[in-house]
């Protein structure tokens, strides 16, 4: 082996030993989410399964959380704009999904008289959602956002080891969650906004733990299971509140007696789910 061979091997060893950075990890985290979102967006049609909408919304929410994690390394204006795009698209997908949830709840609570009107309304909302998402050119928008983010991250001078970056951002999200839990425990039971903030903060921590799973300690990984339980309780509460809001808007052509009966059933269910949610954070 020549001296030049030794130098080349040494250079390769140094490169392998170099710690991975947060900047280099970003594309690996974002690309599968973009693939997932574009797949579900392109599969939407008038007969779409409710799960298709749900999966699209989840992929977009996870992307929004990922950009939140990288906010310290990105231009603030660019980051704010990108996350607004994710929110807009997720809301469009969620509009029809909300009617699916209402239909499921009415069946669960044995409330009759809303099935056909709600299905008709859901079909109209879905048609609007499909048109909105198609006009938004989801594939182009998401991949362009990734390209711009990668360019910004890779042209910055400072490189941050991914382990240190992950710990810092997860700590920030967990601190936010603790504050919101404290606020919710001191809030009135009727103050749903406080519970909703806990739900969003808990989801953010969970997504970050899943993103950076290879880079965190086992003790942190074990938190995912309890966060899933928290998300399930608070998600169940959110379903009732969102359904109540839909009915209260009065957009369904149904009689007052049917509406009042459904709202009373949802009110009673909401009280039960608030109790379950509070129990999960005590």
TrEMBL record:
Top-rank taxon: Bacteria
Comp. bias intervals (Basic and acidic residues): 1-19
SMART domains, per database record: CHAD
Membrane spanning stretches: none
Stretches the record annotates as Disordered: 1-25
Record-annotated CHAD domain positions: 19-282
InterPro entries tied to this protein: CHAD_dom, CHAD_dom_sf
PANTHER family: CHAD DOMAIN-CONTAINING PROTEIN, SLR1444 PROTEIN
Record's protein name: CHAD domain-containing protein
